[in-house]
Amino acid sequence: MSEVYGVRRGRLRDRCAAAGSAAVLVSRPANVRYLAGAAPPGAALLLGSREDVLLCPRGPGGDPAGGRPDDGLRLVVLPAGTADAVVAAAELARGTGTAALAVEEHHLTVARHRAVASVAPQVRITDLGLAVEQQRVVKDDDEIVSLRIAAEITDQALGELLESILVGRTERHLALELERRLVDHGADGPAFPTSVATGPNSGLQGHRPSDRRVEEGDFLSVSLGANYRGYRCEIGRTFVIGTSPADWQIELYDLVFAAQRAGREALLPGTAYRDVDHAARQVLDAAGHGEHLAPRTGHGVGLEIGEDPQLAPSAMGKLDACVPVTVEPGVHLPGRGGVRIDDTLVVRQEADGGPELLTITTKELLAL
Question: Please, which of 124, 180, 195, 348 could form a disulfide with 223 given CB 3.0 to 4.6 Å?
Fold first, then answer.
């Protein structure tokens, strides 16, 4: 794996050198981990012409969940009282005679950017922009393996919950149980705060679990994901509690399912991000639900939930192979509830079987 990190850093270094920056300072935690193998709290990564240095306020803790720094890096643990690894990295770059330093301006605060400039006044500061995020979009085999395992853990946790008694339990209790089951099955933790929504709350995107209790006849929608070795997946399902679904529930579920299927089938290399969104959105729009739809149909996953690409109406760009994304349309009817269906998939060529579905829990409308 050490070679992988070295190749990633080399690719970024070459890109920046072509733009006139001899050194690169990476501070966004997910980007540090992508390039260094680990991102201890407060760490900064300096890519120089002679060596790459990971600067940390304290040494890595040894927790497997936090990753392990690449052996190809020089690790510098800063003295106690050092204010900021980013500023220390800029001082180090100045000391090596660096003429130009590219930094992640979208991550640095104004105060930190000024501090960098003040300790390296002779160094020309340039903007790295989203170079690392763009490099992270296409995943290698090891990354996809980690995502696949995260999805397996998530499916296991959700499957066990579906076998338990749900009536009378609160949204909050069910969410905590799901997160415990994720860890029991090998996750480092939840990929994001688990959402459990019942009755009139169901179908709400990002609903924070409340003390509302599950009742017979409710829609129950859940959204969860495992974090495995830093890689995060996502699944969302909707069920009916304790009885056969009502006609309106079947109709709404079938509609969202059709939208989600259209979005999944559009996941092919070369397809515009906005066209994936349109494929799912037009199904719901044609049924009269367009006004209240979420601003995007899906997004990339990896070291973060919600990373690029964004599958949204105004998104620019086209899909590549080996890009993991979610497809997660939903409809919420105020006062009644709603449906969300969410999967994590990897974009594949048609010759390779088309999109690879990572989250395989049934999408049949079950009565639990």
Answer: 195
